[in-house]
Structures are given as C-alpha cells and as structure tokens.
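Posting for a labmate who doesn't have an account.
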Amino acid sequence: SHGRNAPCPCGSGRKYKKCCGRR
C-alpha cells in the first residue's frame, strides 16, 4: 500500500491522494 500523503509514484511530483490516488 502506498501512503496517500507520499509523493505519487507516477512522477508528477504531486501527492498520491491528489494524483493517482483519486479513484
């Protein structure tokens, strides 16, 4: 599991919850 406040692994530089975490 990836932390929602960790940087998104897709490389956008955004937080995971504001990027790939938005489902």
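Reply:
Got it, the structure tokens are right above this. The chain has no helices and no strands.
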